[in-house]
């Protein structure tokens, strides 16, 4: 909790101003019609993030209290008491920013948030809910009003950020609670997720018209899935779809690729998806069950890759979404050759279309951009390999090792696409160093050897990548 306090307070312009300093500028990041330069956009995003975290924490408290009231209405007083006691877990996240501006309110809020744990023990369900609505929840609203500037908290884009943060928390809690369809191992975590869903639904009702209904179907499906206790991967997929659709509808920064750095990050993410899938294909060919692990990485990139596609081509985004989420099931159910055909024949062409939709033409296809993506992947190879292999040449983290192997495969294929544009000497040097790097990975050489090869590639191609 102290770490959260540091993050939240850092967003204020001066000590004692809480988050008032981030209001007007931050809230107009995408809502106004004036373009902002990259530096301003980054500064605004850095200011918004702690405000989103603060409000998400407040909404989690509201969600816990909603679950306590719902459980009490079902006659489950003991379970209700568990959730009624959760607000005190958030004191370190919620109270310090309030105290910076209004110490008296912070003291009152602390006292009020401790009361549900006692009231739930003896009150009737209807009286308990009335108490929450009249005495506790208004105090949480006052905290948000004190900490987060009105023009920020009132914007649709901000509300979507909060809802999407809560959706991510639902996926985490539900995954911990439900090991398989129909089985709830951790009832507390399951009802955490149910409470957070209530908060998303309440927020969505206020934003639905501004979002033109985007995410409505996914949100409705999410409630049905959670009530029916479906498999955790299904709930995860539905939360991702909701986040993807609402991010695009709210025109969040993640729904556009801005500038060369944004294009580079986007292209690298797509290449990482391809790399994970390459590794899953290779491991499936060996009959290694870790193939599923790497196929399962594809959904991790949904929010990095799909919102810009959703904004421009919803049909393509939906098709790619379905394929990315199906990869782990396909590798488990298909033969190795059938799975390879699925990856190369079905998924890879859609990823190529995604790049063509999301990345401005001025970047794609240029030698400098291809070289920059190549080097970005090289850095990822070095990072993953360093985490996976010891100096004694022992592979300790097999997943990270095959991450590096997959990313190297993408380096080799990308190099084949731009090597003809290099002078013969550079082309030969890079080709030779790539071969060295491949042998180092295959034979599990010390990480320092791999880092040396990556540094050599940078010396050879940095100039080309920056031209």
Assembly category: single chain
Biggest sheet: strands, sense, closure? none
- By DSSP, the count of extended strands is 0
Runs in which pLDDT lies below 50 for 5 or more consecutive residues are: 1-38, 40-45
Terminus-to-terminus distance: 45 Å
Q: Compute the number of helices.
A: 22
Domain count: the total is 2
Radius of gyration over all CA atoms, rounded: 25 Å
Amount of helix? over 70%
Judged by helices, strands and strand pairing, the structural class is: mainly alpha
Shape: elongated
Beta-strand content estimate: under 5%
Mean pLDDT: 91
Instruction: Summarize the helix and strand pattern as letters.
Output: HHHHHHHHHHHHHHHHHHHHHH
SSE inventory with pairings:
Blueprint: H1 2-10, H2 23-27, H3 38-73, H4 77-84, H5 91-101, H6 103-114, H7 116-119, H8 125-147, H9 150-153, H10 156-177, H11 187-207, H12 216-228, H13 232-249, H14 259-285, H15 291-295, H16 302-312, H17 314-333, H18 336-358, H19 367-388, H20 398-418, H21 424-442, H22 447-466
Helix pairs in contact: 1-3, 1-5, 3-4, 3-8, 3-10, 3-11, 5-6, 5-8, 6-8, 10-11, 10-13, 11-12, 12-13, 13-16, 14-18, 14-19, 14-20, 16-17, 16-18, 17-18, 19-20, 19-22, 20-21, 21-22
Descriptive notes:
- The chain has 2 domains: 2-249, no CATH class; 259-466, no CATH class.
- It contains 22 helices and no strands.
- The protein has helices at residues 2-10, 23-27, 38-73, 77-84, 91-101, 103-114, 116-119, 125-147, 150-153, 156-177, 187-207, 216-228, 232-249, 259-285, 291-295, 302-312, 314-333, 336-358, 367-388, 398-418, 424-442, 447-466.
């Amino acid at each position: 909790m102290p770490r959260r306090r540091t993050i939240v307070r850092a967003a204020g312009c001066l000590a004692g101003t809480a988050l008032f300093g981030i209001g007007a500028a931050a809230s107009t990041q995408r809502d106004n019609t004036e373009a902002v330069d990259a530096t301003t956009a980054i500064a605004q995003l850095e200011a918004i993030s702690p405000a989103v975290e603060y409000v998400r924490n407040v909404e989690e408290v509201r969600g816990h209290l909603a679950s306590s009231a719902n459980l009490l209405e079902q006659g489950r007083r003991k379970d209700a008491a568990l959730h009624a006691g959760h607000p005190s877990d958030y004191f370190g996240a919620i109270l310090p920013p309030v105290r910076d501006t209004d110490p008296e309110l912070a003291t009152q809020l602390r006292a009020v948030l401790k009361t549900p744990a006692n009231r739930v023990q003896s009150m009737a369900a209807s009286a308990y809910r009335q108490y929450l609505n009249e005495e506790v929840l208004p105090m949480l609203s006052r905290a948000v009003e004190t900490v987060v500037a009105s023009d920020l908290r009132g914007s649709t884009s901000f509300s979507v950020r909060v809802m999407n943060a809560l959706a991510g928390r639902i996926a985490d809690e539900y995954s911990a609670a439900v090991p398989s369809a129909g089985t709830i191992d951790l009832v507390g975590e399951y009802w955490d997720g149910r409470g957070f869903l209530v908060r998303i639904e309440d927020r969505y009702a206020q934003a639905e018209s501004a979002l033109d209904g985007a995410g409505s179907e996914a949100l409705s499906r999410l409630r049905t899935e959670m009530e029916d206790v479906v498999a955790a991967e299904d709930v995860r997929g539905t939360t991702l779809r909701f986040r993807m659709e609402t991010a695009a509808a709210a025109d969040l920064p993640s729904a556009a690729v801005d500038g060369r750095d944004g294009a580079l990050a986007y292209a690298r993410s797509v290449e990482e998806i391809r790399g994970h899938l390459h590794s899953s294909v290779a491991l499936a060919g060996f009959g290694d069950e870790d193939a599923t692990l790497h196929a399962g990485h594809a959904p991790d990139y949904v929010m990095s890759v799909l919102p810009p596609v959703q904004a421009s081509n919803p049909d393509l985004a939906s098709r790619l979404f379905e394929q990315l989420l199906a990869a782990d099931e396909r590798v488990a159910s298909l033969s190795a050759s059938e799975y390879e055909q699925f990856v190369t024949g079905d998924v890879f062409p859609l990823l190529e279309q995604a790049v063509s939709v999301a990345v401005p033409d001025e970047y794609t296809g240029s030698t400098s951009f291809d070289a920059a993506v190549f080097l970005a992947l090289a850095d990822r190879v070095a990072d993953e390999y360093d985490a996976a292999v010891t100096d004694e040449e022992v592979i300790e983290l097999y997943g990270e090792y095959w991450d590096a192997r997959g990313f190297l495969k993408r380096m080799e294929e990308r190099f084949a696409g731009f090597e003809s544009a290099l002078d013969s000497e550079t082309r030969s040097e890079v080709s030779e160093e790539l071969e060295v790097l491949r042998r180092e990975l295959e034979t599990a050489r010390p990480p320092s050897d791999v880092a040396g090869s990556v540094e050599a590639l940078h010396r050879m191609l940095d100039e080309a990548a920056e031209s």
